[in-house]
Amino acid sequence: MARTAFLGLGVMGFHMAGHLARAGHQVAVWNRSPAKSAAWTGVHRGEAAKDPASAVFGAEYVLLCLGDDPDVRAVFDAFEPSLGAGMTVIDHTTASAALARELAERCRAKGAHFIDAPVSGGEAGAINGKLTIMCGGEEAPFAKAEPVMNAFARAITLIGPSGAGQLAKSVNQICIAGIVQGLAEGLHFAEKAGLDAEKVIAAISGGAAQSWQMENRWKTMTDGKFDFGFAVDWMRKDLRITLDAARENGASLPLTAQVDQYYADVQAMGGNRWDTSSLIARLGRKPD
């Protein structure tokens, strides 16, 4: 079993770190608010560190699950002096590919390794240990780190060199944005046409229109229930990273840019923490 440090005990990280502990790994945790660390050690075997450097000291693997580029850079700055040869930093934050490449170089200078490893699957995936992980980095460190990540993953793929995992996560969010908007419009159309949404979904979900979003979100969307799941604020952060990367690589993302603005409309309605399926709220299906 490995000596690990887990930094960031938010909606996802709390459960991911828990799976590491249950798998038998040694876990030191740190969170910006100490209360979260205390809550974690109250239910899991491990120790709460007073700061990132203390958590990382002596660890073989350092796992991050934070908010955005500035958060990752600030925490990395704090524990960088504790990095040593052979250690591996695994960043599960959805952040920019540029930051991943920067931190990979900084790890290399210390004789350490870096893997950008954003996740998909939401809070339910974290709770159930069934996350999908897209990785960027070198093959040998990835192969050694994969069994550690297996504690909370159902699928792990090395996409390419540093930054490739973050770019693959952008592909994931591009696809989800379009699917959710299409589902919202379809359900809105069905309502306006006077159709029974349940019968429509039963009829079309076995064909080419089927998606995870359709199977898991159509009912809550028609009921105006959005107080769960992946928050609109976080989706807009991910889409900002995606659109910035598209400007750099020349990709044309007109639908993604449009849906990003639709999410801005949802925020203006007070839906910052609503689930991403709340796109339908713009079309008239307000929360109950």
Automatic annotation (TrEMBL):
GO biological process terms, semicolon-separated: organic acid catabolic process
Keyword DNA damage: no
Residue span(s) of domain 6-phosphogluconate dehydrogenase NADP-binding: 5-160
Domain 3-hydroxyisobutyrate dehydrogenase-like NAD-binding: 163-281
Highest taxon, organism lineage: Bacteria
Keywords: NAD, Oxidoreductase
InterPro entries reported in the protein's UniProt record: 3-OH-isobutyrate_DH-rel_CS (IPR002204), 6-PGluconate_DH-like_C_sf (IPR008927), 6PGD_dom2 (IPR013328), 6PGDH_NADP-bd (IPR006115), HIBADH-like_NADP-bd (IPR029154), HIBADH-related (IPR015815), NAD(P)-bd_dom_sf (IPR036291)
Active site: K169
Family: Belongs to the HIBADH-related family.
Protein name, UniProt field: 3-hydroxyisobutyrate dehydrogenase
High-level lineage: Bacteria, Pseudomonadati, Pseudomonadota, Alphaproteobacteria, Hyphomonadales
